[in-house]
Design a protein that fits this description.
The protein is mainly β. It has one helix spanning 8-20; strands at residues 6-7, 25-30, 42-50, 65-70, 77-82, 86-89, 92-95. Strands 1-7-6-2-3-4-5 form a seven-stranded mixed β-sheet, with helices on one face.
């Protein structure tokens, strides 16, 4: 792991590459629930793999919502985060 910041587009590409190989990774983001207008602050997911997200005909937010499976708690939870709120990937901060 490097302490060097990583660009957002590079981070998401590495997340996709690792997911394709079924290799879990960690990431951190600021949570945002636009439906209930709340945030649970900064969240770190220790073990995740990206999954297929919404198509553009399913959600207006399909281009910024990223779908993932959270394996951190031993289960397999399907969740989403907003791409612009991604702050960390495998210990590297996201470069603004």
């Amino acid at each position: 792991m490097s302490n060097q910041p990583i660009k957002l587009r590079d981070a998401i590409q590495k997340m996709r590459d690792l997911s394709e190989l079924n290799i879990p990774f960690s990431f951190g983001f600021i949570s945002c629930d636009t439906t209930n207008k709340v945030s649970k602050g900064y969240k770190v997911i220790d073990k995740a793999i990206l999954r297929v997200g919404y198509r553009s005909n399913q959600s207006k937010k399909a281009d910024i919502l990223v779908a993932y499976k959270d394996y951190s708690s031993g289960g397999e939870d399907n969740k989403h985060f907003y791409l612009p709120l991604l702050m960390m990937f495998n210990g590297q901060s996201i470069q603004p």
